[in-house]
Amino acid sequence: MVYTPGVHKKPYNKSSMIKQIQLEQDSGKSLHDIELKQSLVDLNRAGAPLIEIVFEPDLEDGEEAAALVKELVLIVQRLGVCSGRMEEGALRVDANVSIRREGDPLSTRTEIKNIGSVRGVASAVRYEIDRQQSVLENGGNIINETRMWDAAAKVTVPMRDKEVVQDYRYMPEPNLPPLRVNLTTREDTQDIISVPLISDRIPELPAVSRAKLIENHDLRPEIAIQLVNEPALFDFFNNLMNKKRNPTKVANLLLNDLLTVLNRRKIDVNNCTISVEQLDELTDMVLQKKINLDICRSVLEEIIGNRKSPFAIVDEKGWSLVTDSKEITEQCKRVFDDNPKLVKQYRDGKVKVLRALLGILSKTSDNKLDMSVASKIMEELLRK
RNA sequence: UGGGAGGUCGUCUAACGGUAGGACGGCGGACUCUGGAUCCGCUGGUGGAGGUUCGAGUCCUCCCCUCCCAGCCA
């Protein structure tokens, strides 16, 4: 699923076919420093198992390429294969770029190396597409070459001959015989591995999780993406949805209010100590309009790092939502009496001060009022 | 790239989630007048896209950009 807010209006799905998968041993990572004109080879991972996946040229821009890489990262994380962090070299990407006019065959491709992040994939590919286009428009030719992505300068530069790693020949490894796979049946034979059997055993893939969220809970794709990107929140969500609840509201509670509090405390979501039971009580109160979202965040602050019951806290602190219109009306009148100048401004046509009045109302009543009700009441009172 | 800090009128700087304000500049005017002085008025802004909310500069996600530190010597 491809979605970069600010670039794409809506998420969309895109597929790229796998052309080939190679099992290898890691040879080492090369590090290039352009300013110092030297390249180093990091052999720390030499000999580590490595899978190389080659995709068909199905993707059309840098964002799609980055989305594919992001998806791979999510998959290897979900499967527990590795951290998927590109800067650790746990996952590495080279991008091949070629362009063509509609209907024409693909032009010569270039290969981009030294891409160090998911966003780097998007930037590097975008740059290379633009570069090739401008070369061709100026009557030049694209040569088949390997270029390096310079993340700081945001350009690709040709690798000098010396820099091109020459040891990239495949030495057949006798302990790694060709892997024959069977894509259709659940039957392993001596030489042929059944892919469906493996699919049965591995955790649900991110794409499936998203599809389920969208279909079973009617969530918007943007929300599904966010939930699946944060495993801890995804788990919370699934647990909370064991009761029948409004899925979007539950997701928003997690993605907005929980994250607000965790960010403020600089706590990583995956180290979140709040229990499902606590969230369960809290969610009930929010959805049943027993408390508003301001109070919800206060409760979150209270229960972080302990086992306190949200019910008990709200009870103890008297934080229950006030929805009674008589009481709200009283409070509004009190605010009017205390702020005659603002009221006059409003009646003189400066409607914006309604916000100021609402702010005062909210603050001077301990944030307990149901402000959606209060704003209606106050506006009516002012019009009289 | 990683870690840290940032992004509000042209510039600098405010706004517990509640009327985006001030200063400088610029423009216009006044002061009976060529003043590089003073006063008044006007101008003009929340980096981008989504989202949460009765209400977002402020909260959430992603993106973009800037600055600092680190990457070399091992």
UniProtKB/TrEMBL annotation:
GO terms for biological process: glutaminyl-tRNAGln biosynthesis via transamidation; mitochondrial translation. Heterotrimer of A, B and C subunits. It comes from Pieris brassicae. This is Asn/Gln amidotransferase domain-containing protein. Keywords: ATP-binding, Ligase, Nucleotide-binding, Protein biosynthesis. It catalyses: L-glutamyl-tRNA(Gln) + L-glutamine + ATP + H2O = L-glutaminyl-tRNA(Gln) + L-glutamate + ADP + phosphate + H(+); L-aspartyl-tRNA(Asn) + L-glutamine + ATP + H2O = L-asparaginyl-tRNA(Asn) + L-glutamate + ADP + phosphate + 2 H(+). Gene3D superfamilies: 1.10.10.410, GatB domain, N-terminal subdomain. Allows the formation of correctly charged Asn-tRNA(Asn) or Gln-tRNA(Gln) through the transamidation of misacylated Asp-tRNA(Asn) or Glu-tRNA(Gln) in organisms which lack either or both of asparaginyl-tRNA or glutaminyl-tRNA synthetases. The reaction takes place in the presence of glutamine and ATP through an activated phospho-Asp-tRNA(Asn) or phospho-Glu-tRNA(Gln). One of its GO terms (cellular component) is glutamyl-tRNA(Gln) amidotransferase complex. PANTHER family: GLUTAMYL-TRNA GLN AMIDOTRANSFERASE SUBUNIT B MITOCHONDRIAL AND PROKARYOTIC PET112-RELATED, GLUTAMYL-TRNA(GLN) AMIDOTRANSFERASE SUBUNIT B, MITOCHONDRIAL. Residues 235-382 form the Asn/Gln amidotransferase domain. GO terms for molecular function: ATP binding; glutaminyl-tRNA synthase (glutamine-hydrolyzing) activity.
